[in-house]
Amino acid sequence: MEIKRLSIKNWQGIGYLNIEFQKMLILIGESNRGKTSILKGLAAILGGYEIKDSDFKDKKSEIEIKIKYYDKNSGFLTLKLVKKIGEKDSYFVLDHGVERELSLDSVKKRFRDIKGIVITSKENSIYEALNQIKTIFDSDNKKNKIANELESKLGHLRSNILSQSLQRKVLFSFLKNILEDIEEYEIDLKNHFYNMFLIFEEPELHLSPQESREMYSILVKLSKIGVQIIMETHSSYFVGLNQYKSICLIKKIKNEVKVYQHTGRLLNGDEIKSFNMNYWINPDRGELFFAKKVILVEGQTDKIAISYLAKKLEIYNYNYSIVECGSKSIIPQFIKILNAYRIPYVAVYDKDNHKWRNETELENSNIKNRKIEKIINRYIGDFIEFENDIEEEIYEEERERKNYKNKPYYTLQKITEENYRIPLKLEEKIKRIYK
């Protein structure tokens, strides 16, 4: 079974939402925005959570939770759970256009093969998760490297009092070890992991940045061999833009939980290759999904100068992320992502109309400038153009081509001078960026 869509109505803080599932689903957003409610809604329809009166957003209306899923024997089906206060749960299945009611026993029988593994931040969560995986692999009474590895890890956890940090390291080690020989065990893993769900709360907990990147790679591999993974994270290391369809950005707007997801084509042609390479070089750019506002800049000089000047003006905001795009040509690709997920932003770029540029350079620069302006969604985004670049505005003079060696160093040197005063025109732009 593979879930394709989850719909929730009148559930906890959720009026209505719809999520398109992928093999990996990444729930991100601030605390108390509805991520846990979504996971509880999924658990409720699969029989892992008992609905209480307090779960009704509007007690005069009924709760309705639906999952569309694919079963290799029956094809696409939809299961619906309906609950009214004071009444029992009612289940319905939509099978090729025909809806019929199911008993609870029928629902349990239909989903008895589902293997759910939940990893939370609770003290015994890792032990319980590994024990559940062991149960799955013990079902055929076959001993192999995976079963032996599980027994070893569980024995270590039983014999030692380990902190949550060390328990997470044990899990990381297990997943890493079994996937090192994935070619040898891929068929065996697929057989055991079919119909398996892994709900993983904050996979980044107690892992170093390097381990976090590797853990994300491990989870991607697991999703490719049959495990449907649903993770809740606050770390940019677990947001790979290659898997942008998996990203669900959860926000609360006017006390309503909203989900922003993009399952269509986001980038086209050469944009995909250039963007993925650009992101691969700077994986920290995934931070944009966690920002209150994103400041897109061309390069390192802009990033250094803008943040320093904002601190000098005492308007720097740690909830805003400055994302270095690498070049003006890449800025539109970042804007497309921010538009798709409705993340507020400002694109900051150089006009590049210096007197020393030739006609071809000027035209190419102006084409890029117009492309940025054209693609901006004015409801959530804005642009600010430096004339002709931030260096000229910092120095308040036209700069020669020869002045552009070691730009970040000399720019920072200039703005950190004790008697340096920010020009009024530049100050206004910095304030607009951080408004």
Observed structural traits:
435 residues, 2 domains, single chain, six-stranded antiparallel beta sheet, Rossmann fold, six-stranded mixed beta sheet, 23% strand
Describe this structure in words.
This protein has 435 residues and is α/β, with parallel strands linked by helices. Helices cover 39% and strands 23% of the residues. The protein has 14 helices and 16 strands. Helix 4 (145-159) packs antiparallel against helix 5, helix 5 crosses helix 7 and helix 9 packs parallel to helix 13. It is elongated, with a radius of gyration of 26 Å.
Short description:
With 435 residues, this protein is of the alpha/beta class. It has 14 helices and 16 strands. The protein is 39% helix and 23% strand.
What's the topology here?
Elements: E1 2-11, E2 14-20, E3 24-28, H1 35-45, E4 63-71, E5 75-83, E6 90-95, E7 98-102, H2 104-110, E8 115-119, H3 125-138, H4 145-159, H5 164-180, H6 182-193, E9 196-201, H7 209-224, E10 228-232, E11 247-253, E12 256-260, H8 270-281, E13 293-297, H9 300-312, E14 320-324, H10 331-340, E15 345-350, H11 359-375, E16 381-386, H12 390-395, H13 407-415, H14 424-433
Parallel strand pairs: 3-10, 3-11, 8-9, 9-10, 13-14, 13-15, 15-16
Antiparallel strand pairs: 1-2, 1-4, 4-5, 5-6, 6-7, 11-12
